[in-house]
Design a protein that fits this description.
The chain is an all-beta fold and 173 residues long. The protein has no helices and 22 strands. The protein has an eight-stranded mixed sheet, with no helix packed on it. It has a six-stranded parallel sheet with strand order 1-4-7-10-15-18, with no helix packed on it. A six-stranded parallel sheet has the order 3-6-9-12-17-20, with no helix packed on it. Strand 21 and strand 22 form a beta hairpin.
Length: 173
């Protein structure tokens, strides 16, 4: 019988396995890291309980200095993920860099080709609890993404967005 699936591993890691690790980083209990060789963290990065940093065999995940990552976040960097400095990321945030393409009704979505696109979260921004950032999106410098928002398009610098899909409510002063 053909084995259709294989494990991606346990996610257990040693910080020394990361591509780069700045001083003062904190990994709370239950954090899982996949493909640590493609993940770089700056100084004083906090990674909350049960967060998953899902690196990929290609492309990188780069997280800047003094970024705070809440509990139970899920980051997937198949398309490349860059998170700037001093970014606040609330619990349960999902950042995705891949999606299954439409291949027609004859092909189950699960078996459709995967498309990737990079995500950029610029310096000084904040992603509210349970928000989602989809492939190809840039969240601009100093932007605020409201709780539960789904960012399917770029968020302008200093914008405050909320909703599904996320829409600009106002700009920060």
């Amino acid at each position: 019988m053909e084995k259709l699936h294989r494990s991606h591993g346990t996610g257990a890691f040693e910080p020394s396995q990361l591509r780069a690790l700045g001083e003062g980083c904190v990994f709370e209990a239950g954090v899982l890291v996949f493909h640590p060789e493609n993940i770089s963290l700056g100084r004083n990065v906090y990674v909350g309980h049960y967060a998953i940093l899902k690196g990929y065999y290609k492309n990188e995940m780069v997280i800047g200095d003094q970024t705070w990552i809440g509990q139970q976040c899920f980051f997937h960097s198949a398309g490349g993920l860059v998170i700037g400095q001093r970014v606040g990321i609330g619990p349960g945030v999902k950042i995705l860099t891949s999606v299954h393409e439409e291949a027609g009704r004859a092909v189950p979505v699960l078996f459709s080709p995967v498309a990737t696109a990079p995500v950029h979260i610029e310096d000084d921004s904040d992603l509210g609890i349970n928000s989602v950032v989809l492939p190809g999106v840039t969240v601009g410098r100093g932007a605020i993404v409201g709780a539960g928002a789904v960012c399917a398009q770029d968020v302008p610098p200093y914008a405050v967005v909320a909703g599904v899909p996320a829409r600009v409510l106002r700009y920060r002063a």
